[in-house]
Every structure is written in structure tokens, then in C-alpha cells.
Write a structure and sequence with these properties.
InterPro entries: Aldolase_class_II_sugar_metab, Aldolase_II/adducin_N, Aldolase_II/adducin_N_sf. Keywords: Lyase, Metal-binding. Pfam families: Aldolase_II. GO terms for molecular function: aldehyde-lyase activity; metal ion binding. The radius of gyration is 21 Å and the shape is globular. An 8-stranded mixed β-sheet has the order 4-3-2-1-5-8-7-6, sandwiched between helices. The chain starts with a helix and ends with a helix. With 261 residues, it is of the alpha+beta class. The protein folds into 2 domains: 183 residues, Class II aldolase/adducin N-terminal domain (L-fuculose-1-phosphate Aldolase, 3-Layer(aba) Sandwich); 66 residues, no CATH class.
């Protein structure tokens, strides 16, 4: 096995424990490589993981190297890798706030946080499936083609990424979002962005991405960056000509300003 890849899996395995996303033996992580799939072994104490806790398997689940039995959720990881060639890392945790949503059987699909909208997208809820059985990967099938994060009813969360690091960061971001949404309930609940604001967000992001320019909310004087009272006055739809013209004008201004500055 490649020791560097083993160590990478170990590093993020310990991180999920350090961040409180798992308890004791909970959860599992994997990384795809040209050699096969590096995956945590079953009954791995995440906080004390070492390279001896990492197995190498093929896409059929056969053990190629390692002395331990691969994770009991190996079938879930394998399905993701088979169905998603773009995925190179998978992180399954029982992060408390995200799992609270999963236990309440509520998806994290409201358009509330720009960062989640852009980096992850809607997070659907998979039907309940008995852990460690083939029912778990089967429950993911309706969403596996497009979702970057999926809540497992009464179980936990699984995140995918173009690297193991990205899968971990998405886990971290979703857990933070879930925690914030629960806190917002004490204030009457979070207010989702309007459809126009979401469309504007996507288009602005793509404009900056094409130009290699990063942006933040302060870059644009758009209603989505104003107060909630101002947003309530906004009457704007994706097909609205004035909305489109405002988008083009302000995006061009912001891009030029950022390039010059």
C-alpha cells in the first residue's frame, strides 16, 4: 500500500473524531486511488487511528492489502465510487446536528446559505435503511447521481468530494449549517433565499469562476446582500428583464473592480 495515502486517510479519520463528528467506532472514510480504494477497517477507534487500520480493496470489495476487515459500510462506499467517477473521497459520520436532521427525517435542502448552495447543493434525505446492510447503498440510489451530501434517516451523513479533503470539508460545512439552522429556530426560523437571489448567486459565481476572480457578498450591491426588509421589497424573477440587466451591469462592475484592485 501507498503509505502516503494510508496516512491521508488516517489524518482525516482522526479529524472527524477531533471535530466531534463521530463517537468511538462510528463512521468510516475512504479514498479512491489508481491502486484501489483505501478504506477504514471495521471497529476502528477514530481518535486513535493508525495506518494499520486502513485496508486496500478493489471496486468489487475484495481485500487487496491489509490485515483487518474493511468497514461494515463498504457497500455504500463502493456504490458511490461506481456511480460517481468524479468522486475520489467519501466521509460517513454521525455528526450530531446533521444527524439531528436525519433523525427528524428532515432534508437539508432549503436555500439558506450561499456557501452551501454553491459548494454542495441540496442535501436530500435517504429512506431509513438498516446500517451495515445492502439496504444502505440502495437507499442512496435516487440521489447518488447528483448529491454531494446525503442524510441517512436515523443514522447519519455521507459526503462525497473530488478528494478526501473536500469530502471532509463538506461534512464540516454541513454540520455547521445544520447547527446554525437549529439555532435559527429559536429566532423564528431561517429565511430561505428567493429564487431570484439563488439564480443571481449561481450566475455571479460562474462569472467570477470564468475570470478566476474570487468574490464575497460585499463585492456586489445586490438585494440579496441587503437587509431582510429590503429583500421583502424585491420583486424579481429569473425571466425578469430588469433583473437580468441588473445582474449583467453589477457583475461586470464587480469583476472590473476586483481585477483592478
Amino acid at each position: 500500500m501507498n503509505i502516503a495515502l494510508q496516512e491521508e486517510v488516517v489524518r482525516f479519520t482522526r479529524k472527524v473524531a477531533e471535530h466531534g463528528f463521530v463517537a468511538s467506532f462510528d463512521g468510516n472514510l475512504s479514498l479512491r486511488s489508481s491502486e484501489g480504494i483505501y478504506i477504514t477497517a471495521t471497529r476502528t477507534l477514530k481518535s486513535d487511528a493508525t495506518t494499520s487500520d486502513i485496508c486496500l480493496i478493489d471496486l468489487d470489495g475484495n481485500l487487496l492489502e491489509g490485515e483487518r476487515k474493511p468497514s461494515s459500510e463498504t457497500l455504500m462506499h463502493l456504490l458511490i465510487y461506481r456511480e460517481r467517477p468524479d468522486v475520489m473521497g467519501v466521509v460517513h459520520t454521525h455528526a450530531p446536528y446533521a444527524t439531528a436532521f436525519a433523525s427528524a427525517r428532515q432534508p437539508l435542502d432549503a436555500a439558506v446559505f450561499p456557501e452551501v448552495i454553491l459548494d454542495i447543493g441540496p442535501v436530500p434525505l435517504a429512506e431509513y435503511a438498516t446500517p451495515s446492510t445492502e439496504d444502505v447503498p440502495n437507499s442512496l440510489k435516487p440521489a447518488i447521481a447528483w448529491a454531494n451530501g446525503i442524510l441517512l434517516a436515523n443514522h447519519g451523513l455521507v459526503c462525497m468530494g473530488g478528494s478526501l479533503a473536500e469530502a471532509f470539508f463538506r461534512t464540516e460545512k454541513l454540520e455547521h449549517a445544520a447547527k446554525t439552522l437549529i439555532a435559527a429556530q429559536t429566532l423564528g426560523g431561517a429565511v430561505p433565499l428567493k429564487r431570484c437571489e439563488v439564480d443571481y448567486l449561481y450566475e455571479t459565481h460562474q462569472t467570477f469562476k470564468r475570470r478566476g476572480v474570487l468574490m464575497d457578498c460585499e463585492s456586489l450591491d445586490h438585494p440579496s446582500c441587503r437587509t431582510s426588509d429590503d429583500r421583502e421589497k424585491l420583486v424579481c424573477h429569473p425571466s425578469d428583464k430588469n433583473c437580468r440587466e441588473e445582474f449583467i451591469s453589477k457583475t461586470a462592475h464587480a469583476v472590473l473592480k476586483r481585477l483592478k484592485g
